[in-house]
Amino acid sequence: MRLEEIINKHRENLNDTDMVIWKYILNHRSEARHISIHELARDCAVSSTTIVRFAQKLGFDGFGELKAVLKMETAEQSDYSADVLNDLGKFYRQIWDKLSTSNYDDASRLIHESNRVFAFASGVVQQNVVEELKRLFFYDGVLIYSVQGRVELETILRTLTPDDVFIFVSLSGETTMAVEAARELKLRDIPIISITQLHDNTLASLSTANMYVSPAQFQIYDADEERAPYKSMMPYFVLIEIWYIKYRLYLQKLKEKTNKTPKTE
User: Fold this and answer.
1) Does 96 share its domain with 200?
2) Which of 44, 84, 185, 254 could form a disulfide with 190 if both were Cys (CB 3.0 to 4.6 A apart)?
């Protein structure tokens, strides 16, 4: 589990001082892999004890274990060579290796046990992801209702109960409308599944189950064209297809478990 995922999981327990430490690590990731606890404390204007408490809030024994996780993580690539097709192929293989080995049981359980499933997308690509989710899960009789626009979202929110589940598909995880809705859902104990980019974000921290994507940029234009790099959003679609297959496997495991349970007379 990457450090961003750990932060999102424990974010509710982190105070302002903890977030200062985290923002420093995030903005100085390379240096943080080798920094001492005393240097980090000095740069964040806190005590060494505060650094230790921060690490423990994340489930580590101490700062040394947190730093070990940092060292194991490889830096995300943002620039690629001129051989874009080759790099794209490598990227797809990396995405497959990562997403196919992730655990989807929590999200699958929420879908299986829900009365109704709703989904909200924060952008055009994300809306296409929701449409593909609807198509895939329809094969199993799971109807996913797509919610579009503020008025429709606010109307639907008033009808939800803890027996329902709400899916948010976002890139930043910071879209105001989605975050506000997620806060209300959490207060009412309504399960939330979020699909966001892998980084520290509010939406993921509010969710019951999280899934992450890591889009990548490829430079396919000449430097003098002054155009933004091409960004591959394929990880979204790879993720939901793998999730659907994992959902089918989850149902199969439940069926096998039920069949093995001895009947009581």
Assistant:
1) yes
2) 185
Report DSSP letters for the chain, one per residue.
--HHHHHHHHGGG--HHHHHHHHHHHHTHHHHTT--HHHHHHHHTS-HHHHHHHHHHTT-SSHHHHHHHHHHSPPPP----S-HHHHHHHHHHHHHHHHHTS--HHHHHHHHH-S-EEEEESSHHHHHHHHHHHHHHHTTT--EEEE-SHHHHHHHHTT--TTSEEEEE-SSS--HHHHHHHHHHHHTT--EEEEEESS--HHHHH-SEEEEE--EEE--S-GGG--PPEEE-HHHHHHHHHHHHHHHHHHHHHHHHHHHSPPP-
pTM: 0.71
CATH number of residue 59's parent domain: 1.10.10.10
Same domain for 119 and 31: no
pLDDT along the chain (265 residues), means of 10: 80 88 85 86 91 89 82 54 78 91 95 96 92 95 93 94 96 90 95 90 92 82 62 91 96 87 58
CATH number assigned to the domain comprising residue 92: 3.40.50.10490
66 part of a folded domain: yes
79, part of any domain: no
- Domain membership of residue 265 (yes or no) is no
